[in-house]
Amino acid sequence: MYFVTGNNAKSRIIDITKIARSLDNDIFDSLIGLHAFTGCDTTSEFYGKGKKKTWKLMVEKKMFDGFRQLGSCYFPSSETFQHLEKFVCALYGQNGISHVNEARYRLFKLGNFSDENLPPNKDCLYHHIRRVNYQTLIWKKSFDAVINSPDPAEHGWVINNDEIELKWMSIDAAPEELLQFVNCGCKTGCESNRCGCKRANLHCTELCKCENCNVKIAVLGSDSDDEEDMINSNHEDENLSDDE
Length: 244
What we know:
The chain is mainly alpha-helical and about 240 residues long. The protein is built from ten helices and four strands, in the order ββαααααααββααα.
């Protein structure tokens, strides 16, 4: 297989087969999934995280499994999701962490609020992986005469007015306390209306600097469990549809 690139005097022919044969098997099997995962015409990319950086991380840490498994079937397994979630944590400098919500929370507490510094939450990443898996499988079937692909609306996209759009999330981006970004610094507890959180009918969070507070909740808590339940439920439904 050859690839013609450039134009006029600068045109050249690249021997794709020769390059493929020179690659390690793990890298070769992971390339197509990595390309879709890092952004293409049909999938989104991670802001500020280019293909070169993700390629280097994958090779250096030998994190091939998730990318290699993409496109094996139309519904990515929970194992594939776990591998890729751990990779995203490492991509944002959170080595040793396996959950993007925890990585996102840690970075947020450090004051890294920009899109470039925060990974997607688990729900958003789940839909991204579904799109990536769908696209990778289509590419892997490119030599088939007919591809009977399922409705993309079941794989991370939505159909609005006959147009396909990305389905970014199924749940709120953050707990209500963070969305309204209310925090307090009460010195004598937070039970009176002098507390900004109480006036807003919100619980105090770990972002507050209040003292002697008995109504503070952890930001990384029930919402993460809700996402986990939602993802596991979706996997169960998809497995049932496969059996049918």
